[in-house]
Amino acid sequence: MSIVIETQDLTRVYQTYQKPEGFLNSIKSFVNRQHVSKVALDKTTLQIESGQIVGLVGANGAGKTTLLKMLSGLVTPTSGDAKVLGFRPWERKNEFLRQISILLGQKNQLWWDISPADSFALLARIYDLDPTAARQRYLHLADLLQCSHVLQTQLRRLSLGERMKMEIIGALLHEPRVLFLDEPTIGLDIVAQEIIRNFLDEYVKEKGPTVILTSHYMDDIAKLADKLLLISKGHIVYQGTVPDFVAKSNTNLAENEEVDFEEVIRRFLETESRVR
Ligand SMILES: Nc1ncnc2c1ncn2[C@@H]1O[C@H](COP(=O)(O)OP(=O)(O)OP(=O)(O)O)[C@@H](O)[C@H]1O
Ligand SMILES: [Mg+2]
Q1: What is the rounded average pLDDT of the residues 57-73?
Q2: Is residue 276 predicted with pLDDT exceeding 70?
């Protein structure tokens, strides 16, 4: 198996400033700003093999989106290095961008004022895909995701679930070899979550991309991920399979007590929130 994603001490520090309370203090702070550094990701070293589906799990603010944004070239690291398919992502080489995709569940990436079908036609031109093949592909994907009936509707008129399905199709149109899925089921009803989960499961089995997936729904991770990456305050604190993680957590419990994956994660997040 070849290594498709690797990072070495990858770090991202964000600079923000604290705005003091009160109008006058606020004006003063234009001249005398209180800068604050926030380490979003701290010296992360990891390797991901070709064809693996990695579930990235951690509390709000743990650094998941920051990691995915760096690996897809949207954010430049403060220090450290990363290679994805042999490219440094933030150099944003065309050859790299053609082979990857990032879906940000909390953000719209398709064009707001046109229909998904028109967005896909535009994406096909941007990625230099054969228009007929691209059309067949999005029709097929829309059929699998049960959203064909709204392909011609303006994106902004679609429901959250319909929009997310369209975003997924947009992310897959150019058949990326590496796929970053940041909360692809966020805010969706349980049926829509299941449709997307089953779709992604079939898709990765058929096409074999390398995937990093984040989700706060542990069903997504349990169903899709070969490997779990647990992240806490910018640090990876566990790398391994879900069953190994559950078994390891269970060895620390009292006799007769046994917890499932969701419960292990819940306890982990509870401990996190106490020390946050
Ligand atoms: N552009 C930014 N400027 C300043 N701070 C940022 C910026 N983006 C992220 N951060 C901070 O970096 C930390 C990590 O954020 P990140 O979005 O990576 O978390 P996350 O694990 O994706 O959380 P969530 O589960 O809520 O999506 C947070 O403390 C956040 O406030
Ligand atoms: Mg996030």
Answers
A1: 97
A2: no
Ligand 1 pocket mutation, candidates 36, 38, 276, criterion most atoms within 8 A of CB: 38
* Residue with the two structure tokens 């007590």: 257
Do 69 and 192 fall within a single domain?
yes
Q: Are residues 34 and 168 in the same domain?
A: no
Nearest ligand 1 atom to alpha carbon 183: 27
pLDDT in tens, 194-251: 999 999 999 999 999 999 999 999 999 999 999 999 999 999 999 999 999 988 888 8
Q: Which atom belonging to ligand 1 lies closest to the Cα atom of 68?
A: 18
CA distance 31 to 23: 14
- Closest ligand 1 atom to Cα of 234: 14
Say if residue 155 is in the same domain as residue 166.
yes
pTM of the predicted model as reported, rounded to 2 decimal places: 0.93
- In DSSP notation, 119-158 reads HHHHHHHHTT--HHHHHHHHHHHHHHTT-GGGTTS-GGGS
Q: Does 219 lie in the same domain as 92?
A: yes
Domain that holds residue 114: 108-174
Q: What is the pLDDT of residue 253?
A: 76
CA distances 123 to 24, 164, 173, 211, Å, are 48, 16, 8, 21
Does residue 45 sit in the same domain as residue 151? no
User: What spacing in Å lies between the alpha carbon of 226 and ligand 1's midpoint?
Assistant: 25
> Is the CB of residue 65 below 6 angstroms from any atom belonging to ligand 1?
yes
Strand-strand pairing, 227-232 and 235-240: antiparallel
Pocket flag, ligand 1, residue 12 (CB < 6 Å): no
- Domain shared by 181 and 170, yes or no: no
pLDDT digits (tens, 9 = 90+) for 23-38: 887 777 777 777 889 9
pLDDT greater than 70 at residue 60: yes
Q: Do 66 and 187 share a structural domain?
A: yes
